[in-house]
Amino acid sequence: MNKIPVTQIDEAQIEEIRSYYPPEDKFYVRLIEGRFQNLRRLVSWPLLAMFFSLVWIQVDGQPLLFFSFAERTIYLFGLTLSWHDLPIMAGLMIAGACLLFFMAVGWGRVWCGFACPQSIWTWLFIRIEDWAEGKASQRAKNDKLPLTGVRLARRVLKHVLWIATALYTTLTFSGYFVPIQQLIVDLATWEAPLYTVGWVICMAALTYLNAGLVREKICLHACPYSRFQSVMFDKNTQTVTYDVARGEPRRMSRKQRAAMADRTDSVAGADNLAMAAVAHTVHDVQTREAAKSRGDCVDCGICVQVCPVGIDIRDGLQAECIDCGACIDACDGVMEKIGLSKGLIRFASEAELAGNSDGRNGWRAVFRPKLAGYATVMSCAVVAVMLGFMNTIDLLVEVRRDRLELFTRIDDQTVCNNYHLKVESFNQGIDAVTVSVDGLSGVKLHGQKEIDIKENNAAWRSYRVCTSQASVPRTEIQFVFSTPDAEVRKKTTFLTSSI
Hints:
- β15 (about 475-480) and β16 (about 485-495) form a beta hairpin.
- The strands form 5 sheets. Strands 8, 9, 10, 12 and 14 form a 5-stranded antiparallel beta sheet that branches. A 4-stranded antiparallel beta sheet has the order 13-11-15-16, with no helix packed on it.
- It is of the alpha+beta class.
- It folds into 3 domains: about 15-235 and about 370-375, no CATH class; about 240-365, no CATH class; about 395-495, Sandwich (Immunoglobulin-like).
- Helices cover about 50% and strands about 15% of the residues.
- About 25% of the residues are buried.
- It is built from 19 helices and 16 strands.
């Protein structure tokens, strides 16, 4: 790697970048442009668009994505799932968790930095703050001034926009469980139930606090992912890393050299001119020796300024780091500006930084046991979910015997049993179901033979089954529920005696 001598570096540019270091109690996130930030937006903005739009989309009068507790039904992109299909949703979550672990083993916390809702909403609120109150350096300066006039108006505008965004987020999220149109109408006309109003207020307040004020503390203190990442990571895991061997020792800034010169001048003032000359000579020798051994890091601090969790990546891997790549884009910009090669901060593994080729592109880095294990479990979960979707329940039936009366004897030969039946359809194409009984000769079914699903779905109906040809005390029978395309059978018992 060819390094440019320090005398060729335009340090005015570096001082231009070095505007401030974040204080310990509060830091101001500086927005940056770069390839990883573009990638993050390419991932997060479509996710935001899907979240805010899917709740309004309907196909053939049915929502595209909706979780109905009242109907015990899940509408999932054209599929209608019953509560009996909940294991499929569990399989989806297992597959998603395995995908998350697989990505963590391979590329660190890229989910946190690029697709996690916490990060997406945090960046969204930061952008609102940047638009309302100005850039990070301006916000840092304004916080030292009295909050009056234009600064007060900008601060109020920021919080109003934050509250509006939190409220819109809450309404959208609630719309996946309660019809969004009816929810908005009820809230606008003050006809919404008290528990609905309380839910909206609480969720909006939590969103406002979480994305606007708490932010990175959630990633460190509330999210378990940051705590067990050390268990998933190995020496071949690609994470955002500072190349210590290349960057250290850091180059001194103009301010640091000026401070050293001031200390030398103080020696000259205290002693004679000869000692001052010796001190200047030692200073020049030290400066030349330091120039030969300087690393590429110019200690501008911009990698700290752009970090949404307020850490210094040069201190090594930390639990707070979400691998968003903001510090990579910032550092690459500085390196390009001063004429050095990019990659001082980059996605790299421990093995790569140690000079192990397997850490970069060897087969061992790709097909390692931990990565293969998560991939295998994820594949099995995906296959199970696909099989589940292929065998969803279109018609759910339940049969219950009348517990108050086991059987009724009409005469010496005729015996009747009472049953309660419920038919619930999860297929929009099923309009009616025909009910019959099988397994018993001479049987007569008293009740509604054809059930209109559209009229009253999932309602309990009473039926009576009678026969004069039962020869044993207990007989197994089947209720048959027929549609034009399918048939569902439900077993039960027919009793003629209490013995």
